[in-house]
Amino acid sequence: MKAIGFYLDKGKMKKKIPTFKSDRAAAAFVDKADLTRSDLSGARLTRFEIKPKDKSINLRLSGELYDAVRKRAARAGVPYQRFIRLTLEQAISGTK
Length: 96
Description:
Helices cover 40% and strands 11% of the residues. The chain has 96 residues and is an alpha+beta fold. β1 (6-9) and β2 form a beta hairpin.
């Protein structure tokens, strides 16, 4: 049985996390909320860009590669330039 804003999970009601209009509103919610009773199934891992980017490069790509990169970035949910940077970081660090 389902109710708006809640779902049943092993007999316990779980609250859905509301949508926030700002990071400040989200932070205020997290500071006060008991997230142990919240439905976090829709949560996504987010990587924050902290280090300053003080160097730039210019790349020439084929139209086909450019389109493929943009599509993969969209599927990953990140801007394509960040996707390229993350891909380069993974290649350098040897991680998959």
